[in-house]
């Protein structure tokens, strides 16, 4: 797909002057910007002066602002027709003041037509390996997931209070060969263990390019106050995923250990992922956002 081709096809003439604001314009945000048609003006919020030139070189309009400084966000009011919010929450606590500050800024003047927030599938907590639809009640088990759920609530409030078509993408593990840390190679090279089959958990994935296309689809097609699981079709346990990657890369499969043994070898972050098991259903992604995945399984994406 050419870099300037939108997965929604050619946009109608009335959309060609659309202004899209990307908040949190990292890897996925830049993939989104590259896939929007040339007629769409893309604004990117950044708190880093060092990033301004790089964003401008990609054809984006950089805007200086810091989500931790509400006053610096005032200039965002009325600037964009559609907003994509991919910025992470603060690093501690159970609330996301950053998303609330962004929401207040967007409510000051003419509100955007659409707001899409990139959340995490971690808000579901441990589901015991069940298939999980968006109607399942969230049960976050970590502060990180609690912050994301708080951000979702702020986004929904903005939708109700401001008449904005607000939607949420719940995102699992993101991978891509050209994404920093986007493949299992580094972990396989270190020989980091995975759980033995009887202790293993289901994990979920989305290729970064497909996630970018899902973000664009949600900006134009997302339903108001709607949650969508942005996941591919893969139904693999974590150990099987790393075995698959090892076989594709011609590397040694990781060692398998019992859950008790893993607690003494792995970081708390890795252990938190190993303590939750779920399989995401993605019918809304396909039916409502009408997204045809380019990488429907981890095997095709890793190849």
UniProtKB/TrEMBL annotation:
Cellular component terms (Gene Ontology): cytoplasm
Top-level taxon: Bacteria
Membrane spanning stretches: none
Boundaries of every NAD-dependent epimerase/dehydratase domain copy: 20-229
Pfam families reported for this sequence: Epimerase
GO molecular function, one term: aldehyde dehydrogenase (NAD+) activity
Name by which UniProt lists this protein: Nucleoside-diphosphate-sugar epimerase
Lineage, uppermost ranks: Bacteria, Pseudomonadati, Pseudomonadota, Betaproteobacteria, Burkholderiales
């Amino acid at each position: 797909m050419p870099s300037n081709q939108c997965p929604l096809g050619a946009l109608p003439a009335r959309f060609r002057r659309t202004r899209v604001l990307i908040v949190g314009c990292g890897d996925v945000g830049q993939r989104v910007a590259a896939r929007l048609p040339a007629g769409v003006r893309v604004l990117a919020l950044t708190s880093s002066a060092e990033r301004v030139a790089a964003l401008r070189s990609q054809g984006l309009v950089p805007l200086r602002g810091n989500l931790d400084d509400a006053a610096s966000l005032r200039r965002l009011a009325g600037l964009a027709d559609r907003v994509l919010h991919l910025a992470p929450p603060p690093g501690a606590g159970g609330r996301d003041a950053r998303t609330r500050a962004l929401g207040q800024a967007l409510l000051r003047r003419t509100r955007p037509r659409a707001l899409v927030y990139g959340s995490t599938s971690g808000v579901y907590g441990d589901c015991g390996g069940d298939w999980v639809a968006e109607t399942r009640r969230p049960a976050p088990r970590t502060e990180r997931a609690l912050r994301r759920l708080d951000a979702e609530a702020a986004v929904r409030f903005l939708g109700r209070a401001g008449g904005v078509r607000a939607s949420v993408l719940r995102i699992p593990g993101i991978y891509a060969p050209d994404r920093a840390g986007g493949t299992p190679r580094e972990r396989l090279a270190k020989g980091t263990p995975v759980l033995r089959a009887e202790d293993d958990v289901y994990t979920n994935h989305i290729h970064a390019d497909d996630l970018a296309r899902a973000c664009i689809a949600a900006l134009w097609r997302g339903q108001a106050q709607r949650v969508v699981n942005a996941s591919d079709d893969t139904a693999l346990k974590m150990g099987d995923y790393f075995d698959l990657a090892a076989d594709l890369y011609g590397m040694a499969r990781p060692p398998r250990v019992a859950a008790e043994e893993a607690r003494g070898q792995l970081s708390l972050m890795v252990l938190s992922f190993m303590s939750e098991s779920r399989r995401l259903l993605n019918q809304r992604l396909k039916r409502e956002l009408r997204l045809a995945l380019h990488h429907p399984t981890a095997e095709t994406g890793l190849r």
